[in-house]
Every structure is written in C-alpha cells, then in structure tokens.
Amino acid sequence: MSFLSDYGQPQNPAAASPRSVTYCCGSCGYELNLSSSDRDTANIGSKYRKSAKKGIVSFVAVDESRFSQIEELRCWPYFESRHSWGLLRRKTKLSCRKCKNFVGVGHYDGASTLVGSDSSGNGEAPKKYFIKISALQPLACDE
After folding, report:
1. 8 inside domain
2. Residue 76: which domain range?
3. Bridge partners for 75 per DSSP
C-alpha cells in the first residue's frame, strides 16, 4: 500500500497518523495524565534548544488533580521582554501526588497575573507548565 503526501511524494503510513505519548512519574510510575499532545509548541524555534538542554519541557495543559501543588508568590523583579517586566510573580510547584517527587512548576503567563482579566473572566492569565524530563517516563502510545 502506498501513501502519497499533498505534494505527490511517498509517505510512511506510520508517520501519517499522529501519535501522542502519555507520561507517568519517573520515580513511582503513578499516571500523571500528561500527554505529549498538550506540549507548548508555539515557541519551539526560539527557546526550545535552551530549555531542552536544561531538561525542561513546556506544556499548555496538565491534569492538576494528579499533582500535589504548592502556590508561591515571589517579590523579585522579572523580565518577560525588554519592555515588559514585573515585581510579583505567582508560580505553582508540582509534585507527584503519590510519591511527592518534584516534577515541575506552573507559571502564570504574562504580566497580568494579579491585575486584569482573561477571556474566562476569572482575572487570571493562563498557566504554562515547565516539567522536568527526568521526572517523567513514557506510559503508552496512543494512535
């Protein structure tokens, strides 16, 4: 059986179907309901290599019920860009709910973390989650 891409080139049928990997805790094997399809791919070109070298993968969504969470409010200057900065930054430390192993952090996105509102009207900007690669292990492949 031969598959052709949009440009008439032969294509591997296995590559035609997108696969997503589900991850569990690297220490105890607890299922974290963390899927590779929820990875943040918007900035793959700009800072991806730097974060991969640090062993960090970013996600736009996680199942927060699978993690123990500790909320922190830090009073320290931070810079989003040359013209965007702030003093107060909220973050959430994420640990495995079963073994309490540190998995990563969730940061509120943007400078509007304490003031303003988003489309949901709850006054919070969306979170981005930064997960340590070494704290994960693949659970299964879904087709």
Report:
1. no
2. 19-142
3. 88
